[in-house]
Design goal:
Number of domains: 1
Number of strands: 0
Largest sheet: none
């Protein structure tokens, strides 16, 4: 009779999960470039928001708070993309979706009512001040997350 491994203390076997290395890493291959761009935007948007808020907040409080929101979204997306757990994938999906909605909404509002945005944010004019990278980045991020989904077995 073959020897069997006893169940762990508590009597229940752990659910079968793929080994961490079996899951596609979001930060591998082209994902490395995506993470690098997110990291650059996290740092630059954070620095810009801090300087704007610290030096001239009263001039454009809405724009500067939106810059801080953009920075927070980039930080969360960067961290989530670096990790490879299922939970971090969900966090990355939510943060990149918020980023896309934000850049579209702020883009429309800033173009439609420039008086409400006396100073630019990262997402103003659909990211025109950053070469429209803020508009393209979440589309690439969502594509990457979709293309790196773990495949379900039949």
């Amino acid at each position: 009779m073959p020897a069997t491994t006893p169940p762990p203390a508590g009597g229940r076997r752990a659910a079968a999960r793929p080994a961490p290395s079996a899951r596609p890493a979001l930060r591998s291959g082209p994902g490395r470039l995506l993470v690098a761009v997110y990291a650059v935007f996290a740092v630059s948007a954070s620095a810009r928001a801090l300087v704007q808020i610290a030096t001239d907040f009263s001039a454009a409080p809405l724009a500067y708070l939106l810059s801080a929101l953009a920075a927070a979204v980039y930080v969360v997306a960067t961290v989530a993309l670096v990790r490879s757990s299922e939970r971090s994938r969900r966090v990355a999906l939510v943060s990149v979706t918020v980023e896309l909605v934000g850049v579209l909404a702020i883009g429309v509002l800033s173009v439609g009512d420039p008086v409400a945005f006396p100073d630019e944010t990262v997402w103003s004019g659909f990211g025109a001040g950053y070469g429209y990278v803020p508009l393209v980045l979440p589309v690439l991020g969502l594509w990457w997350l979709r293309s790196q989904r773990p495949r379900r077995s039949a």
